[in-house]
Amino acid sequence: MTVAPPFPNAPPPPDVALEDPRRATACALVVVTPAAPPVPADRAGADPRPPDPPRVSLLGSRDVRRMTPRQMVDLSLELYAAGVLDWEDYALLAFQPELHPDYDSTIGALTGEPAAPDLPRDFVAHWRWRLDFERRHTSDDPDRLRRTARILKVLCRIDRSADFRG
After folding, report:
1. CA-based nearest residue to 98, from 69, 73, 66
2. 108 in Cβ contact with 159 (< 8 Å)
3. In whole angstroms, what is the distance from residue 95 CA to residue 115 CA?
4. Which residues does 82 contact at the CB level (< 8 Å), separation at least 6?
5. Where are the chain's structural domains?
6. 66 with 75: CB under 8 angstroms?
7. I want to staple 24 with a disulfide (CB 3.0 to 4.6 A). Which of 9, 17, 36, 81 is the partner?
């Protein structure tokens, strides 16, 4: 007795597609570029691109000087999703060691301080300290210094915008 596959038109699994080049073309991804929005008649000669939005202001009022590590993880994801941070910057900012379940038995055991992921911190001061540390102790990765400076710049912008909002 022959049993028909449950989904006869489904693409083959990835390992099958790689084995047979004829079938791999059926599974290839196609990059689609969105069409440009129509340009109003009064802006026909002007730059068709709209001005960049103030992305940081879209995130609402955040106090990065009194934020918990849990809140920083959420903020860093929002900054990444808004295009303010690239993936590597996001990875640096979102990494909060105190959220790891083994913090107390590893880093906490070495420092003598238990994890406090719900205790507010001054992340502007923390990233200033990290930038100063990176400058004093040059690492093998010069890109890390640039990324640390860029993260500090974003946090300072958020801090200033929070000052202006009250």
Report:
1. 69
2. no
3. 14
4. 55, 56, 58, 59
5. 56-165
6. no
7. 17
